[in-house]
Amino acid sequence: MIDDVAEEFYFKPDAGRLFVSPADASPSAPLDAYPDDLDVAAGVERLERATHLNVTRVSHSWAGLRTFARDASPVVGLDGAVRGFCWLAGQGGYGIKTSPALSRACAALIRGAPLPEDFARLGICADELSPDRLRDCDPGS
Ligand SMILES: Cc1cc2nc3c(=O)[nH]c(=O)nc-3n(C[C@H](O)[C@H](O)[C@H](O)COP(=O)(O)OP(=O)(O)OC[C@H]3O[C@@H](n4cnc5c(N)ncnc54)[C@H](O)[C@@H]3O)c2cc1C
Fold first, then answer.
1. Nearest residue to 24 via CA among 58, 59, 61, 65
2. What angle do CA 37, 33, 15 make, to 5 degrees?
3. Most buried of the four, 70, 76, 99, 132, by CB within 10 Å?
4. Which phi and psi angles does 35 have, rounded to 5°?
5. Nearest CA to ligand 1 atom 14
6. Among 52, 30, 50, CA closest to 42
């Protein structure tokens, strides 16, 4: 897999073809995402600019939404207002990669236990993940 330093695009071989993403992050309301023609063209242009490849046809395009909290950190923890509801959201583009760790954090918080020891060693505390940190945010911003 090739990923540029500025995270403007990445590509990798996939099922006999090339999988290319412009790594774009256009703000969007929750909806069934569809690939925007301009974003597809941007992916092609960035690939061609960085390589000797010449794209003649895009055989398939796809889009999805990555979910971010305002500070771009995951939201993990019990809701302050709704008893028994625990958040595990806002994993952005890293929810697959982080799921083993975040699910352990979530399980600990549901049990009322501290975050697992490896979180503490990395200096991550429950307050930094808690939904409470976003309570006063304007949901539209
Ligand atoms: C384009 C794109 C690229 C990504 N690339 C990466 C990557 O390279 N590496 C990485 O680590 N992460 C990546 N991610 C992020 C990752 O996919 C997410 O962070 C992760 O899937 C979130 O997991 P989740 O279980 O919280 O939510 P989801 O995977 O969204 O699962 C939620 C599930 O709940 C179901 N659901 C929704 N509403 C209801 C309902 N009312 N009743 C019952 N079921 C319901 C949905 O159908 C869905 O199956 C990417 C995301 C996108 C969009």
1. 65
2. 75
3. 76
4. -70, 125
5. 93
6. 50
Among protein residues, the one with the nearest Cα to ligand 1's atom 26 is: 89
40 Cα–ligand 1 center, Å: 22
Q: Give the residues surrounding ligand 1 with Cβ less than 6 Å away.
A: 64-66, 88, 91, 93-97
The alpha carbon of 62 and the centre of ligand 1 are apart by a number of angstroms equal to 15
Residue pLDDT, tens place only, 79-126: 989 999 999 999 998 999 999 999 999 999 999 999 999 999 999 999
> What is the rounded radius of gyration, in angstroms, for the C-alpha atoms of the chain?
19
pTM beyond 0.85: no
Tokens of 38: 């301009």
In Å, what is the CA distance from 109 to each residue of 25, 70, 106? 30, 22, 5
User: CA–CA separation, 11 vs 115, rounded Å?
Assistant: 35
Distance from C-alpha of 10 to C-alpha of 136, rounded to nearest angstrom: 36
Cα gap 27→68, rounded to integer Å: 10
Indicate the SS3 state at residue 113.
coil
Nearest CA to ligand 1 atom 16: 95
